[in-house]
Structures are given as structure tokens and as C-alpha cells.
Amino acid sequence: MLAYTKLKDNNRHMLRDIIPLKKPFTLVVEPSGLCNFRCIMCFQSASESRYFNKNRHNMPFETFQLIVDQMSQWGEDKLKVLKLSLYGEPLINPDFCKMLALARDADIAERIETTSNVSLLTPAISEGLVKGGLDYIRVSVYSPLQEKHEKITASPISIDTIRGNLEVLQEIKIRYNSEKPFVAVKMLDTYSEENEVFREMYRDVADEIYIEKPHNWVASTEKSFINSLYGEQNDSVISDLNDQDNKLKACGVSFYTLSVRNNGDVAPCCVDWSGGTNVGNIADMSLRDIWLGEQMRQFWIMQLQGRNAENKSCRNCRVYKSNYYSKDDVDGVSIERLYK
């Protein structure tokens, strides 16, 4: 299988040449807004967002069924990717494997993936991932050192448990003669020898290991997520953030993505944990009608006109300004294109 980090560049379209799309390439679904970690650099540890905090729930299976039904009825080409993870730990939802099987049977996406800390990855769930046809599981590791892991995650779960869960998953893949799910294990750059300790620890249980660069999500007035992890004066972090700055004015994510929270709220963004970009709810409108609707088009126009500071989440977002995380440049695309 193609390495996870190579997927973004595989058969890549120039987004500026093909928008508006008849259907998003990516649908992100939140099986759970809950998490068993409270990482110091994550919004799960923030207390200020009333929207986020009141929506820390598991997605009911009936809501997921509605999503699959709406995508099946949409027509057009299949999604390029269905991501079964958003702001929480997806394996907290006891219906996760059932959701996966439903989506796979409905054949609504070319690829299905999830992101997890795998601390809750039991043998039964691992078997469900293999039998359900999950293509990729991206594993978030926070440190290969137990004391630091506990400090970051506020969880006493052993790092040996996390590694052991992946070992069992690989054994089950062998038993079923399956190369899926592809296991991509990643950690934020520590700018230290700890990176090599991490690689060595997971070398035998991962199909790919990589280091991610720091980011600040949608910035919070309560805390700096980056400073919480690295401290206020980390020259390596500051240098990386400066090097990643792509100077873009418009965010390309909304032109190919829809995200559905556990309560059915829909956003054209996969990092807006505070809910400022919500454009509808699947209980009121279908995903197709939301995507093709006027509210979505006005959101795109706002982006292309460089007015994204008008949106409370967009004006605090730095992710799309990072050439590490954002591969699309839609600056200067004519608004008239959106009316064709």
C-alpha cells in the first residue's frame, strides 16, 4: 500500500483549476467528541469553548446511518476519502466498527481512514478494523517516555500498552492475510533525540513512522497550544513556523471538505473545534443541499475575497497558512467560477 504521507501527492488535482466541485473529495465524520486524553496542546484541554464542551458526545448510530444514506443518494463520483475521526477519540464509540462496516458496504468512498491514540484498541476492535476494511489508521503518539507521556496526555495509560495494542493489530492482520489497515504512527517533532527513541520503539509495529511539525489549530484566547507543549521561547519551533508560512490569503480546505460533528452539525473545515464555520445540520438539510447551497457558496466567496477575518474561527486559524499542512493555493480564483 502507498504510505500515508504519500497520499496527499498521489494523483493530485490542482484545486484552483477544478473548483467548484460537484461533491467534496473528503468527508470527515466525528464518531465521538469524547477523548480519554486531555493533551496540553489540544483543545480537549481547553475550557473556554461552550460549543465544543457541550458537544462532547458519541455520535448515535442512527446519525451515522443518515450520513451514509445521504451520501449514497447523492450520486456523482465516490468520495476520495471518508475520515472516521475528528475532535475526539473515535474508538470510544462502541459502534465504531459497526459504522466502519456500514460505510464499507455502502461503498461511498475510495478510502476509509481514522486517527486514534489506540490506547483503547482491544483485540476485538482490531479484528473489526481488519474485517471492516479500514484502509488506514493514523496513530497519534505523544512521547515514547512514560513520564512525559503522562504529563502531556494527563493519562496514566502505559506507553507499553499502546505499543502492545499495535502489535496485536499487526498479528491479526497477518492472521487474516490482510495488509489493511495500513498503520502510520506519528509524533510531533520534539527537536531532540527523543524522535529516534520514538522511531525505534514503534519500528516493529508500524507500517510507516513519521514526525509531524507543530501547529496551533484554531488559536484559543485561553491558551497557546504550541506554548503549552514547547514553552514560549523554543527557537526551533519558531523557525519551523516561519519556514512553513505560505502567505496564503484564502483557505483551500473548504473547497473540497465537509465535516460532520457528532450532533450532525456540518462545517467546511476539519480543524474548527469551536464551531465558528458551521453551515448547517444534516437533520435539517442533506449534505448535498448544504454543499450546493447558498450559505456554502457565501463561505467560499468570503475566502476568495480575503474576508476570512470576518469568521471568528477563520481569523484565528494558522493551519491553512502552513505549507506543511496546506497543499492548495486558491488565491486569485475568480468568484464568477462559483456561479458556473
Q: Which residues sit in consecutive blocks of at least 5 with pLDDT less than 50?
A: none
Structural class: alpha/beta
Number of extended strands: 9
Q: Give the number of helices.
A: 12
Estimate the global geometry from the Cα principal axes.
globular
Q: What are the secondary-structure elements, in order, as H or E? A: HEHHEHEHEHHEHEHHEEEHH
Overall pLDDT confidence: 92
CA-to-CA gap between the ends?
A: 38 Å
- Strand order, sheet with most strands: 6-5-4-3-2-1-7-8-9
CA radius of gyration is 19 Å
Binned strand content: 5-15%
Biggest sheet, in brief? 9 strands, mixed
The level of helicity is 25-40%
Description:
The protein is α/β, with parallel strands linked by helices and 340 residues long. Helix content is 32%, strand content 13%. A 9-stranded mixed β-sheet has the order 6-5-4-3-2-1-7-8-9. Strand 2, helix 4 and strand 3 form a beta-alpha-beta unit. Helix 5 crosses helix 7. It is globular and about 55 Å long. The chain starts with 14 loop residues before the first helix and ends in a 36-residue tail after the last helix.
What are its keywords?
single chain; 340 residues; alpha/beta; 9-stranded mixed sheet; 12 helices; 9 strands; globular
Write the layout of secondary structure elements.
Elements: H1 15-18, E1 26-29, H2 50-54, H3 61-74, E2 79-83, H4 96-106, E3 109-116, H5 123-131, E4 136-140, H6 146-153, H7 159-175, E5 182-188, H8 194-202, E6 208-212, H9 225-230, H10 235-244, E7 257-260, E8 265-267, E9 280-281, H11 287-291, H12 294-304
Parallel strand pairs: 1-2, 1-7, 2-3, 3-4, 4-5, 5-6
Antiparallel strand pairs: 7-8, 8-9
